[in-house]
């Protein structure tokens, strides 16, 4: 039975990945902060699909939590989904520095360390890979969140080239607006987002898995967001920054 490790596994995109992978017959290593939710999820997947489920209660914003997850990743998994993350409202100068540093640890350091722990075994066995959940925000300059997700995309593309031909694959996943707990936890006002731009988490994950199996380097599973990301890549940096700042002022 192949094994998948999913961080941020009890809600949103992480939970959607766990549901889909359990249905596909993967054993699971579920990583999140809430032990009770982890236990409920594990019981659900065991009962519904008969798969082996491990839980790891860990806060990846802390050294202890990150080290524990890193150690488990290094013991070997067939698929690593680096999904844990959070957002912030407000401008950089108006947020607490500890929150900014915590975001960099979860979005960047955790992705780097868990990938570094898990990927060598995948390369050695000639199979498996890593899905690093970034965001369409990676293509638009908007504070630490966008900057950290841009790093995830670049890091993933670089690693994909490094392991090309090994049988292992690394993919960045760049969702748009997805209906999850993410925005509520981050205290974001999403009232200005049109209904047509919201994505379903299970459909997003199904498309992401298809892209991963096809060897896509950067998955943007929706035509509207593909166009938006393409626009972000093509616009001059100064204009891109002005548009991003304007959008942020409306939705912060």
Summarize the structure in short:
By secondary structure, the protein is of the alpha/beta class. It has helices at 12-23, 35-49, 63-74, 97-125, 143-162, 182-185, 201-214, 223-234, 237-251, and strands at residues 3-7, 27-32, 53-57, 79-82, 129-133, 169-173, 218-219.
The domain count comes to: 1
Largest sheet, if any?
7 strands, parallel
- Quote the average pLDDT: 87
Question: What is the H/E string?
Answer: EHEHEHEHEHEHHEHH
Q: Which band does the percent of strand residues land in?
A: 5-15%
In the CATH classification, which architecture applies? 3-Layer(aba) Sandwich
Span between termini: 44 Å
Q: Write down the overall geometry.
A: globular
Structural class: alpha/beta
Low-confidence regions: 239-252
Total DSSP E strands: 7
Under CATH, the topology is which? Answer: Rossmann fold
SS element count, helices? 9
Strand order of the largest sheet: 3-2-1-4-5-6-7
- What is the name of the CATH superfamily? NAD(P)-binding Rossmann-like Domain
CATH level 1 class label: Alpha Beta
What fraction, in percent, of the residue positions are helical? Answer: 40-55%
Oligomeric composition of the shown chains: single chain
- The value of Rg in angstroms is 17 Å
How would you describe the overall organization of this protein?
The chain has a single domain, classed as 3-Layer(aba) Sandwich (Rossmann fold). The longest helix is centred in the middle third of the chain and has 29 residues. Helix 1 links the parallel strand 1 and strand 2. Strands 3-2-1-4-5-6-7 form a 7-stranded parallel β-sheet, sandwiched between helices. Helix 1 packs across helix 7 and helix 4 runs parallel beside helix 5. With 252 residues, the chain is an alpha/beta fold.
